[in-house]
Amino acid sequence: MPEVEPTFSAPPRLLVSVRGPDEALTALQAGADLIDAKDPERGALGALPPETVRAIAACIGDRAVTSAVAGDGTGTAIAAAVAVIAATGVDFIKIAVGSADEAALAQAAARAPGRVIGVLFAEDGVAPDIPARLAAAGFRGAMIDTRGKAGIALPALLAAPQLTAFVAACRTHGLMSGLAGSLTLADIPALAGLAPDYLGFRGGLCQGGNRRQALDGARVAQAVDALRTCHRADAA
Ligand SMILES: O=C[C@H](O)COP(=O)(O)O
């Protein structure tokens, strides 16, 4: 597994969600730090078939960090969904934690120790204690995303102080943190300043800004450059 430990002086890393090996290679070649397997045809947190996730993990190897979505937390138990995706060999497994209780969280984390990322939807609000609860259950990280994908981006749903508090709480409890949700290149300067470990994108880096269209390698490269530019400016 490539270097993934959060180094809080580093700029946020770029997570790009892809739907297959071709897009995974496009994101890798454009400089993405984390390749995230997700099915944009199945809502905000749709899981790809395990064999597709396995193919993405195989084509990336250790050239980048990999993750895959296990599901939106509804229907089957989250632990079972985590186990299926954990077996594909990706580095991290993302699962919506919704209203899961401590027992369900611990069972999910135990299916892939040190590899499970809890996803929260901005529309539901972010309880101040959720990072502590996820850390206590054995999660590796936490990410805020948006359930709706009709163009209302994360900053329109949660104010900077709320996002800052979430990132700080993740850091306090040793969790990697991520912010995502219909983000565009224009969101990078403000969100990078909140110092999450990852900023997650799909739609804003696809052709026409449509997450169900193909990933655009040039836009991915622009996001990589924007993140690095923010870091250089902060360091100056
Ligand atoms: O995890 C990443 C986000 O879900 C990316 O999707 P989006 O930019 O289309 O909202």
Descriptive account of the structure:
Helix 1 packs parallel to helix 9 (217-235) and helix 4 (102-110) crosses helix 5 (130-137). The mean pLDDT is 93. The chain is of the alpha/beta class and 236 residues long. The longest helix is centred in the last third of the chain and has 19 residues, at 217-235. Helices cover 37% and strands 18% of the residues. The chain contains nine helices and eight strands. Strands 1-2-3-4-5-6-7-8 form an eight-stranded parallel β-barrel, surrounded by six helices. Residues 15, 17, 36, 145-146, 149, 180-183, 200-204, 211 line the site of glyceraldehyde-3-phosphate. Glyceraldehyde-3-phosphate (G3H) binds at residues 15, 17, 36, 145-146, 149, 180-183, 200-204, 211. It holds the Pfam family 4HFCP_synth. It is an enzyme of class 4 (lyase). Keywords: Lyase, Schiff base. This is (5-formylfuran-3-yl)methyl phosphate synthase.
